[in-house]
Amino acid sequence: MTWRASAACLDSDTDFFVNSTSIGRGHHTRASEAPALKLCGVCEVTTECLDYALAVPEARDFGVWGGTTKGQRTKLRRQGGGHHALHSTGV
After folding, report:
1. How far apart are CA 35 and CA 3, in angstroms?
2. Which terminus of the chain has fewer CB atoms gathered within 10 Å of its CB, N or C?
3. Residues 6+ apart with CB under 8 A from 9
4. Mean pLDDT (whole number) for 58-65
5. Global confidence as pTM
6. CA dist 19 to 46, 58, 80, 88, Å?
């Protein structure tokens, strides 16, 4: 994960991206996702992060990764796409 060194969230608290009360439940509230999604919006490596999240089960099933929520990644997987599908479908 060499891209991780360039991530905007590198020094952020992981609770910022993964609400510990939602692990295992598979969901977050929009309010808890908003700050993480905002940080992803200025990140240089969202594509690499999203690709990682889609490929690694431990990452794809919770939290905010690559500017996406768990629900958005689930939709992407069902559509058979990755970051390219994200941008073309507006997920």
Report:
1. 21
2. N
3. 16, 17, 36, 39, 40, 43
4. 84
5. 0.75
6. 20, 15, 27, 29
Vertex 73: Cα angle to 88 and 67 (nearest 5): 75
Total domains in the chain come to 1
One DSSP character per residue, 48-89 reads HHHHHHHH-HHHHTSS-BTTB-HHHHHHHHHHT--HHHHHHH
Closest CA to 65 of 85, 43, 84, 87: 43
Q: Please report, as a single letter, which amino acid is at residue 32.
A: S
Task: Give me the mean pLDDT over the 49-68 stretch.
Answer: 88
> Are 17 and 63 in contact, with CB atoms under 8 Å apart?
yes
The three-class DSSP label of residue 2 is helix
The answer to whether residues 35 and 17 touch, using CB atoms and an 8 Å cutoff, is no
